[in-house]
Amino acid sequence: MSLSDDLAHLQQDALAQFAAARTSEAVEAVRIAFLGRNGRIKELQKAFGQASAEEKRALGALFNQCLESVKQAHQNAQLGLAGAEVDEPIDLTLPSGARHLGSVHPLSQVAREVEEVFTSMGYTVIDGPHIEQDEYNFGRLNIPADHPARDAQDTFWLTSQGWRDGDRLLRTHTSAVQSRTYRLVGEGTLTPPFRRVVVGKVFRYEAVDATHDNTFTQVEGFVVDKEITVAHLVGTIRTLLTAVLKRDDVEVRLRPSFFPFVEPGFEVDVRSTSAEPGSRLSRWVELLGCGMIHPRVLEQGGVDPSRWQGFAFGLGLERLAMIRHDITDIRLFNGADLRSLHQFGTGA
Ligand code: PHE
């Protein structure tokens, strides 16, 4: 057999044996057999040393090629083992690495429920802009520029080109959406009867403490129809509170109050007879403002008050969530402290 045949055989054997080696010991044994100090390559090298100068020249490149390919086969075998180790059997019953699921913000949870209750009563959910005009936030709601009722809702004013200074503001209440809606009637794009509900952010220039924030959420509901009475208003509020506070024994109490855009106006307190003594709901809690929509407010929007009437109410969503979850600090909602937010579950 010629040296070149020997080389070819050696290479073939080495590649086959490396490919067949399944453990690191087996790979090592093949390495020693071929690439070791007394291995087959060394042997062949000795034979090669005795070859004639002519043969050496002819076979040199072939020899190097053979050596390289055996070394490469060795490397591949090692890499193959490394891969096989990763592929080791996986225990599917082991607990997986903890994967944190986000949770729906407690306010969003309550907001969804509120919207659901109202849509079930035939209301349409709407919203308006956060940056509002004086006209909608105050003027069309019977709160002219010098009216003392403005003091109760100090706001953030915006100034910029194109707008009269002091005309743009961050809305202080969702009642601004009432004035926008009545205006649609005057413009001919909406015809009564209608029921609307707004769940949206409002802003007030407030000193922040445990019960006040400068940014909070209001729920505003209003109905324009024929022969609407305070009884409808009370029934609606009771339905809302029963659903959101998840209690059958919610009691509501109306106290006369003043809001320029309703007449008569009330403040509503709530309590629950089954509430634990000492808990928030065991005593009357002031919860919302409401009343029969003032005829002038309807009229300014283009709704004929001799044909149509209605009720409106507005309440703070945070306050509702605080009562429901017995939360004592409103700052939790905007505070982004995940430790407190995570307690409200996934609620997705
Ligand atoms: N907009 C009033 C407030 O923010 C609440 C309210 C709404 C009162 C609707 C009456 C009717 O205080």
Task: List the main descriptive attributes of the protein structure presented here.
single chain; 10 strands; BirA Bifunctional Protein, domain 2; 2 domains; alpha+beta; 7-stranded mixed beta sheet; 20% strand; 3-stranded antiparallel beta sheet; 348 residues; binds phenylalanine
Describe the structure.
By secondary structure, the protein is of the alpha+beta class. The chain folds into 2 domains: 3-86; 106-344, Bira Bifunctional Protein, Domain 2 (BirA Bifunctional Protein, domain 2). Helix content is 42%, strand content 20%. It contains 12 helices and 10 strands. The strands form 2 sheets. The chain has a 7-stranded mixed β-sheet, with helices on both faces. A hairpin with a 4-residue loop joins strand 7 (250-257) and strand 8 (262-272). Helix 1 runs antiparallel to helix 3 (40-49), helix 1 (3-20) packs parallel to helix 4 and helix 2 (24-35) packs antiparallel against helix 4. It is elongated, with a radius of gyration of 40 Å.
